[in-house]
Amino acid sequence: MAIIRYCMITLLVAMPLAAQTPGVTLSGFVTDADNGESLPLASIVLTQVQLGAASNSSGYYAVKEVPAGTYEVVISYIGYKSWRDTLAFSDQDVRLDVALQVESVDLEEIVIQAERSEELEQATQSSFIALQVEPLQQMPAIGEADLLRSLQLLPGIQSASDISSGLYVRGGGPDQTAILLDHIPLYNPSHLFGFFSTFNPDAIKDVQLYKGAYPAAYGRTLGAVLDVSNREGNRQRFSGRGGISLIASRLLAEGPVGQGSWMMAGRRTYLEPILSAIRSRGVDIPLNYYFYDFNGKVNQRWGDDTFTMSTYWGQDDLRVDAEEEDESFADLRWGNRAVTARWTRVFSPTLFGHFMAAGSSYESILLFSFFDTPFSIANSIRDWSLKGDVDYFANRDHTLTLGFLATLFEFDYSQSFNQEEESLYQRSVLASAYVQDEWQAGPTTRLRLGGRGTYFSVGDRMHFAPRLSLSRALNDKIRIKAAAGMYRQYLQLITTEVFSGGDFWVPLDSSVEPGRSYQGVVGTEWNPSRRYQLSVETYYTDLANLVVLDNAVPVDSEGTRSDDIFKSGGRGWASGVEVFLQRRTGALTGWIGYTLGWTRRTFPELNRGRAFPPKYDRRHDLSFVLSYNLGKWRLGSNLVYATGQTFTPASARYSLREPTTGSLQDYVLPANRNSARLLPYHRLDASASREFGLWGLDAEFYLQIFNIYSRRNEWFVEFNTNNPETEPQVIKQLPIVPTLGFNFSF
Amino acid sequence: MRYVFIALFLTACAAERQPGELFGSVEEGSELVVDGVLIVDQPLPELFVRRILPPGQTYSRDAAGVPDAQVRVFQGDQIFEYAPDPAPGRYLPPPEAPLVQTTTEYRLEVDVGGKKVRARTTTPERVRVRQMVLLDEDTQEIMRTLKSFAEVGDEVYTAPENQLTHLEGLIEIHLEKAGEAYQAALFALEEDAQLLDDDFIEIYDRTPEDLLVNQSPPFAASDGIVRWPWFAVVYTGRSLIKVYAVDHNWFEFARSSPDFQEEQGGFGGLAGENFERPLFQVEGGIGLFVSASVDSVGFVILPRP
Predict the structure, then answer these.
(1) Of B54, B269, B276, the CB nearest to A652
(2) How far apart are CA A134 and CA A235, in angstroms?
(3) Which residues, numbered 202 to 261 in chain B, qualify as contacts with chain A under a Cβ-Cβ cut-off of 8 Å?
(4) What φ, ψ does residue A117 adopt, rounded to 5°?
(5) pLDDT tens-digit map of A385-404
(6) Which three-class secondary structure state does DSSP give residue A399?
(7) How far apart are CA A86 and CA A252, in angstroms?
(8) For A157, what's the count of Cα atoms within 13 Å in the CB-facing half-sphere?
(9) A557 to B274: CB separation less than 8 angstroms, yes or no
(10) What angle do CA A637, A640, A643 make, to 5 degrees?
C-alpha cells in the first residue's frame, strides 16, 4: 500500500505541473550514424535557455517547456561528434531524431568511454559507472577479454582469486550483485568454473554498473547491479567482427533487415583437440571440456513502435574419466538460456514505454559414477517475467518513471545416490512495482526520489524499499553527491569459488527472514579539465538476515526448509572510501583506483557468535590501468595491489579416536575464524597490439601477459597432519600466463 | 623502469614464508581434550584425557596424554571413579561398573589441576538390523535376503546367501528405527584380504591398512534404509558392517568434523574457508563424550570372475 500511496502523491504533485507547463516539447531518438544503434544516456542541451535531458535506455529523450524562440541544440555523446543546429520553436512540439557520427580518433582525442554518461546519469546517481566494451577489450587478460575481470579493476570491486570472475562489490559477496543481460537476470554468469564470464565482448554494447545505493528501477539484491545490454545490430550495412585466441574463437555478424536490424554472435572453445593431442602423446589427462555461447537479436521499428527479440544460449560441459572402463567418471554440464520479447513505444512526446516478456533459465547437471555407484545432482531455476517501464516527462523539472515486474520462478532440484532418488520442486511469484521522480530541484541540484514495493509468495512477504539520490554542483568543476536506499534479497545463491558449475539459487522461505541492507553513499567529483576527473566516495552498508550454507548438513537430510540448509540470522556491515582518478583523453589514458575498506560478519553459529572478517575483507586495494596509443600500436598494462585475504590459521593439534572405528586420528584446531591474512596480492599485466590490414579486413594482432613477474600469490592454506610436524600448505595462484591472438572486423 | 622490474621481481621471489607464520593463537578453554565413546550393552569404556599441543612443534600423542587427571562418570546417583593407566592419558573404569544402558544420561567430569571439563550424553535406544538384502540393479527388486547373526551366528560367513560378488546388485540394510542419526563402517576381516581394484590406493590416497575400515558420513536414514555403495567395498573376503545409532554429541561431531567435510568435497564456500571448529559439545575443553547402540551384519565379498 505504501508504494501505491507514494505513486499517487507523486502523480498528484506532478500532474498539475504538467498541465500548467508553457512551451513545447523537443523529443526524439539519438542513434549511432554508422550502425543505427541507439545511444542511451546521450546529452541533449538547448544552450541559450539551459534546458537539457539525457536519452533513456532506448536512446529516446524529451525536453519539456521549450519557450518559443530560436535556440542552438547540442546533442553529444563522448566518442562521437557533437551534433549542433539552430532550431526555431513556436507552438508545435518538435520531433528531432539525430544520428551521431563517430569521432575520428587522433592521439589527442582518444577518450576512454567509462564516463560518457556523466552529464546526467553519473551526475545524478552516486556509485554509477557506465562502460563501453572497447576499452575493456584492450586490457591485458588471460586468454580472452572478459567483462567481469575488467570490472574487478575498478575501485570498490574485488576478485576472489585469479581464477574467479566473481564480483565482490564493496564488501559484499557475488550473490549480492544482480547481473542482468538485456534487463533479465543471468543466474550463473560464468564459464570454465568461473574463469570467464558468459558475456561475449563482441556482442556487448553498453555496461552500466551501480556499485551501491542503486535506484528504484532495480531490485532483487542487497548490494550492486550490473546491467549489460547487447548490440541491436547494424541498421546501415552488413558487418561483423571476430577473434581467435589460444582457447576460443568468436564471430559476430549483423546487418539491416526490413525496418530494423539483426545481430548474431557466437563463441566456442577448442580445448578438446588440444587435450586429445596431449593424450595421444601418452600424457594422462582425464579431462574433456568445452563451452559455447550464442547471442542473437532482431528488431523492427514501425513509426513510434519498436519490437525486439533477443536470446542468449550458453553451455559448459566437463567430463573427467577416472578409470578406463567407464566405471568411474564425472560429467558436469551447466548453462543459461534467456529469451526476451520487447516492445517500446513513444505514446506521445512526453510518454515513453518499454514492455517486455522474458524467460530465463539456468540448469546444472552432475553425473558421477564411482566404481559402479551412480550419483547425480540436477538443479534448475526457470523464470518467466513480464516487465514494464514508463517514462513520463512531466515538466522541465520532473521526469517520472513507473514500472512493474512480475516473475514466476520454478526451482527444481533432484539428487540420486546409488539409485535412491530425492527431488524438490518449488514455484514462487515475485511481483514488484516502483516509481521514481527525477527532479531538477534547482539550477545545480538534481534529486532522484523513488520507492520499490515487492511481494514474494514464498513466506508471503511484502516490503517497501525507499531510494534517494542527490547531486549538487558547487561550481562547473566540482559536484557533490549522496545516495541512500533500502534493499531486500529473496533468493540465495549457493556457490563455491572454485567450482561455479554447481551454483544454484534457492528461495528463502518463511523459516528465515530475507536479506536486508541499508546503504548510504556520499561523494564528490572534481573535473579540473576535460582530461582529468577525480572522484572520491565513501560508503556504509548495514546488512541483516544474512545466510550462509551449512556445510555440515548430512547428505540424506530430508530438511528442505531454509533454516535446514543455511546458517541464518547473520548480520554485517561494510564501509570504505574509494578514490578514482582518471585520465580520459590523449595518447595515454587510464585510471588509478584505490579503496580503503572494512567489512565484518556475525553469525550465531559461526566463530562462536563473534564478528569476523569475511575472506574478501581488504584494507587496501589499488589498481593502475594504463593504455598508451602509438598510432597502429597500442600498449596496455594493469598493476594491482591488494591486502592479503583473510584465512583461518591452525592454533593447535590434538588427537581423537574415530568413534566408529576406534582408530586414533590427528587433527588441527582452528583459531578464530579468518584471524590471519595471506601475503599481499600484487601482479603486473601487460599487453601490446598492432592494427593491420588483412585481405581487406581491419585486423589486430595482440600479445598479452598476465602476471608478468610471475608472482605466486597465495590463494588459501591447508594443514596436513600426516607427519608429526604439522605442515601448512599454501596453495598458490596462477604464475605468468602469456597469450596471443588476433581480432578482425569487416 | 628497470629498477621497478627488479624490485617487483624480488618481491615476487619473497612470497615464501615460514610455516609458523601460518599458525594462530589458542582460544582459552580449549586446552584439554577428552575422548570417550559409550556403546549400549557394553562395559563403560576407557577414557582418554590429553592436551592440545602447539602446531609449530613436533607432535607426540604420548606427550599429549594427561597423567594426573581426576576422571569421573556419573549415572544418576552412581559415580564411577576412573583410574589412571600406565599409558599416558588413558583412564580405566572401575571393574564393577555395569554395562551401558539405553536411553540413560551419563555425565563426565574431568579435573586437571582445578581446570574442569564437563560433558554429558544420553544413550540412544538399541538399534537392530531387520534384514540385509541384495537388490537387482535394474528393477530394484529383492534378489535375496542375507542371513543375520541372530539367525545363524558366525555361519553368516559361510551361508550361500551371504556370498556377494563385487559390483553385482545393490546392498541394502533395513533398520528398525532407533534414533535420529546413524553412522556405519565396513570392516574387512581377512588378514590376507585382496584389494578389489589397485586404483583404490591412489584414488583414496590412503594406505592399504587404512582401507581395511571404511566409514560412512553420518546419515539420517529416515526411512530406515541404508544402501551401501560399492565404492566403499575395497577388499575381498569376510566383511562386517556395523551400524551405529548415534547420540546428539556423536552426530554433531561427525557432521562437522574435518573428515566429513572432506567427504563432502572439502569446500562448500570459498576455497579454504571451511576450516571450522567441530561441534564438540564439551564444556571447558574439546573432544568427544558420545554414545551409540550398534548392530552388525556379516558377509563375504568375492571378486568378479
Answers:
(1) B54
(2) 20
(3) 203, 213, 215, 217-222, 225, 227, 229-231, 242, 244, 246, 250, 253-261
(4) -90, 5
(5) 999 999 999 888 899 999 99
(6) strand
(7) 39
(8) 26
(9) no
(10) 175
Q: Could you tell me which residues come within 8 angstroms of residue A368 by beta carbon, excluding any fewer than 6 positions away?
A: A329, A330, A331, A374, A375, A376
How many residues comprise chain B? Answer: 305
Residue partners of A693: CB distance under 8 A and separation at least 6: A699
Residue contact A676–B24, C-beta within 8 A: yes
B219 Cα to chain A: minimum distance (Å): 6
| Contact call for residues A576 and A166 (beta carbons, < 8 A) | no
Residue A453: per-residue pLDDT = 97
Nearest to B277 among A558, A669, A718 (CB): A669
What is the C-alpha separation between B189 and B175, in angstroms, rounded? Answer: 23
What is the Cα–Cα distance from B182 to A660, expressed in whole angstroms?
10
Taking CA atoms, what residue in A is nearest to B229? A373
Minimum mean pLDDT among A58-67, B135-144, B202-211, B213-222: which range? B202-211
Instruction: For the full predicted model, state whether its pTM sits above 0.90.
Output: no
Structural contact between residues B237 and B301, judged by C-beta atoms closer than 8 angstroms = yes
The type of residue at A159 is S
Question: Which segments in chain A show pLDDT lower than 50?
Answer: 1-4, 6-20, 105-119
Confirm or reject contact between B9 and chain A (CB < 8 A): yes
- Could you tell me if A537 lies within 8 Å of chain B, comparing CB atoms? no
CA distance A210 to chain B (A): 24
Q: A57 near A34, Cβ under 8 Å?
A: no
pLDDT digits (tens, 9 = 90+) for A466-503: 999 999 999 889 999 999 999 999 998 887 666 666 67
Give the mean model confidence (pLDDT) for residues B242-254: 94
Shortest Cα distance from A33 to chain B (angstroms)? 43
Interior CA angle at A290 toward A288 and A291, to 5°?
155
Give the residue, A274 or B260, on which the prediction is more confident: A274
B244 grid coordinates: 551405529
Give pLDDT, residue B262: 55
Is any Cβ of chain B less than 8 angstroms from the Cβ of A735? no
DSSP letters for A601-629: EE-TTSGGG--B--TT--SEEEEEEEEEE
Query: Under an 8 A CB cutoff, do A659 and B52 touch?
Result: no
Name the DSSP class of A40.
Answer: T
C-alpha A619/C-alpha B196 separation (Å) is 53
